[in-house]
């Protein structure tokens, strides 16, 4: 019996990477990398602390705070802070582990980490959130810094929470530095940062479509199913519409909002309406019964969109949370005609779903579904966080166009890197599309492993 606790999310993330490496030719060509896998799977440091704060009724509340500083081979630890009641060490280790290789794929000098708390911002007043953030940062500030660990936002952590935490860090450390990303635009934030993950996943899929169709197709005319309704889903949807596609679904933790019929799309105005209620931490269900939405959309309580869409699906973008596409839902997407699926969320597909996608890709040639994992497809968010760090270090601000162009280039490089690595190390059937999950895993892992070897972390 192992003396280690059961950590299902982390074990899933580890096995997904390890199985990819085992099934490639990497260990045959470079058997010493097995030792690197053992080393990289253990965090360099895990910080856990209590967060004591006072609610509006002057009652003391207690939460758990965490920071998993997983790997610093390529640069300071970099990864978000998540405030959600589901947060535990297993989830943060899985997110931090994925972050190592995602950050490596951006080509920027960033290590991997993740943190957060089981605090739930929903239903809390601004003052309660401020008091929690002050208490949380009072402890966390001992372990982070612009050249050590640079957290960002994640689920439950918006610009408001980042502002409260940055203010407390500055007071305690007596230093203004780029210690957090996702800051306000007037005090060190980067343009395009809120949009970056959503835009990035669409830019990535653009290259998938172009490669698979030999440049004959684009997003124009594509029906795109999206889950989630936070920043990633909102901006992915807006970019899809801008590029000529139709968005046929959005969702939240309570249910899915799906276009009725086979024609039409969410409009930018409808997406902005959903964004506005999400700022108020309300549910999509509150809009679903209004005349403006009920005449066009169908709301399915407790459901995800994948099996509830009428007509074909060309592209699927899971953009809510982990394990939101099951094996059966993967088969349903294939049956609906889906040709491209890319994760806006982290580990959005279960291992069963990935197996379904990969088997279909390998046996159906040009008619197959092509799957891109989150560590590659959703790297746009952390990429622009890295660009924010660069701007802070140089005390400059880039224009929206400059940041967007850099993001586009990073996502193109990320795609091409995974594609080339898959062709080198991952065996596929003749005529099949290369495995982007294998290529991305191997490319990210080998870059980190080589840096660790140079540092003497394994040999």
Secondary structure blueprint with pairings:
Elements: H1 8-22, H2 26-29, H3 33-40, E1 45-54, E2 60-71, E3 77-83, H4 89-106, E4 112-117, H5 126-140, E5 149-153, H6 159-173, H7 196-212, E6 223-226, H8 231-242, E7 246-252, E8 255-259, H9 268-279, H10 285-288, H11 291-294, E9 297-301, E10 315-317, H12 327-335, E11 340-342, H13 351-364, E12 370-372, H14 374-377, H15 380-394, H16 400-425, H17 436-454
Parallel strand pairs: 3-4, 3-5, 6-7, 6-10, 10-11, 11-12
Antiparallel strand pairs: 1-2, 2-4, 7-8, 8-9
Write a structural description.
By secondary structure, the chain is an alpha/beta fold. Among the domains are: 43-173, Leucine Dehydrogenase, chain A, domain 1 (Rossmann fold), CATH 3.40.50; 196-377, Rossmann fold, CATH 3.40.50.720. The chain contains 17 helices and 12 strands. The longest helix is centred in the C-terminal third of the chain and has 26 residues, at 400-425. The mean pLDDT is 96.
